Structures are given as structure tokens and as C-alpha cells.
Amino acid sequence: MSPHRRSYTDEYLDPEKVLSLLKKKFRKTSDDMVLREYRGGAANSGSYQCLWVRVEKQRFLDMVDTLMEIDFPHFQITSGDDIGDAVELNYHFSIFRSVGRGKRLGVTVSVVVPKDDLVMPSLWERIPGTEYSEREIREMFGVDFDGLPNKGLVFLPEDWDEDIKPWRRDETGPKPEDIRELS
Prior knowledge:
Shape: globular
Helix content: 10-25%
Radius of gyration: 19 Å
Number of domains: 1
CATH superfamily: NADH:ubiquinone oxidoreductase Nqo5 subunit
């Protein structure tokens, strides 16, 4: 065993290999997978790669389970955007063990959730650390998470009208009279 290889890792996978594994399993959506490189630090000397993957809502849990087969995906946050007839959710993960010591691969899984069916399966049973992010998306966009045990408000006041979704750009978003000055 190499001194830099942990015993729980069978082999190191470079980001291209991870991409290849996902494309093989998700052939139908393989065109919606792209590997991007980002640079930063002093003189842009540091870099990391991020894999962006778009899957259908019905395949979302399959994608997360596949990531878990490769390496445990360290959950960072869920971000979202009101894109008209749908809400786009971006689940941001990192994987470390399988890509090598001192390296990481960012993985963003994007799912478009139609506004006429704003329900997503919760990741809470697989990754309990997703709870607050899912609760935030629920209160700000109105996406319900099937299987999330605690759906209480996180950021909005207890007396908030839950029919108003602050991050939506449609009729459910806040109106000028719903906004108050804090100073």
C-alpha cells in the first residue's frame, strides 16, 4: 500500500474517470455533464475541477447513490433559481478520497423541478447534513422535500405567511407591501 493511499480507497480516480463512470451509467443525460476547471490563489497557481451534471428529477437519487458508490459525497449546500415554469436546484458536493490525497473534485448535480410539481425526494436519510439546506429551499422557493422530517422555518419569522416565497420571481414572490425596512 502506498503511504499516501488510505486503506478505504481501492484506487484513485482522476476527474475524467469519474465523468466517464457517470456517463456510462447515465447515458441518456451524458450530454448534460461537463467538467470545468477553476483557478485561484496567488497568481492563479491553485486549481480544482468541478463536474456539473444535470439529471431528471426521477433519476436524482440514482445519481446520488452512484456518487456514493464512487466516494462519499461531502454535501456543501443546495442553491436554487426561479427559471420561469420551474425551479432549478443545484446540489453542491465534493469528493476527496477517490481523487487522491490533497485533491478534491466538486460535483454539482442540477435538477429542474416544475412549478406544477414542486416536490423533490429528500436526501436527509442518506446525508443528514442536508436538512437545513432543504428547509431553506422549502421556505424560500416552496419546494417540498418528501421524507424530510422537520419542515419548520429556518430563516423567516414564525409569523411569516408561508404562501409568500421570497426567492421566487412569480406571483408567489414578495410584493412591495410584504417588505419592511429593518432600520
